[in-house]
Specification:
six-stranded mixed β-sheet, 38% helix, 11 helices, alpha+beta, single chain, Ribosomal Protein S5, domain 2
Length: 390
Amino acid sequence: MSNEVQPVGTARLLQLARDKYVATYGCEPVVAASAPGRVNLIGEHIDYCEGFVLPVTIPFETLIVGSYNETDKCNILSVLADEDAQTSFPSSSAESLKPGPPTWSNYVKGSIANFPDPVKGFDAVIVSDVPIGSGLSSSAALEVAVFTFLEALTGKSVDAIEKAQLCQKAEHDFPGVPCGIMDQYIVTMGKKNHALLIDCQSLEATQIPLELGEYVVLVTNSNVKHELTGSEYPQRRAQCQQAAEKLGLSSLRGAKREDLEELKRLNCDKLVIMRAKHVIEEIYRTTEVAKSLRRNDLERVGKLFFQSHESLSKLMEVSCSELDELVDIIRGAPGVLGARMTGGGFGGCVVTLVKRDEVDNLKSIVLKEYSGNPTFFICQTNDGARTHIL
């Protein structure tokens, strides 16, 4: 099916990066590292509220190769989009790095600036097949791939949790996105054939075996692009924090359903109460999905998926007409247990729990009824960030 997206594969990405490096810099690279994208099964707009999230890695990744260049400059060739793009900026050992154009370079600069040791000048090529702007965490894949590359380049190993936190800080400081810890955490520590239940308060993580039997997770990309550096994402985060402060809490992690009545009594803004209701109920749904996966109750998982989407659309208001349309179409298709938007919202993808032998039929239905131009892939999980032998 022409609308099916296939990963390029690590071997081909590595060869592409090496060829580009040799053509650009005239020598072979010494170090290579990669990090995958991710989809979140459930637990949206929860990580910055210190709740639980349940992401999985996907078979798309960002890969970087490079070597020291004996200068105080970092020279980067990016093959992230249709056209190659190059940038050059001072290494962290030369002077403080600052955000600036091009936009994608800020994710690279952020990882360099937050690396524990000063970084000398290097040449690098970055390639990726992670769809950009689709809620599949292309930003965290880039940050963590660069950080892992720096570990290999400098010989300094960083604890996995600290690494995720430093990459999160990189996104806060340079692109200016106040993201939670989920994306960097799963991209760093994901495991093949598992989902990762992350407690965003304690940062404890539990690997949940993903044994779906005759079912698969189908990802449908609405191909509506979103930018989280706009006002919508920070606004939702601020509203959640306002609700927590009204309740005398550091975050909504400790809030309960009855606290919604307290927010009403305090004459809290209606939108703030709506956001709080979503968070409180989504934290519950996420832990329930993890329990249901352990006992192989996939019908329960599917129902919770639908409930999550309704909440994200009506209470958190981070869906869009295209995502709602997709979920409505998918809801009535044969073999479907559940579907929901995934990612920060305002575009991006829908995850669907569907029988494997109904996947082609579901794609046909979506292609016929959806007003946009969707693309699909089956979520085959991957390991997290890693280095590669050249």
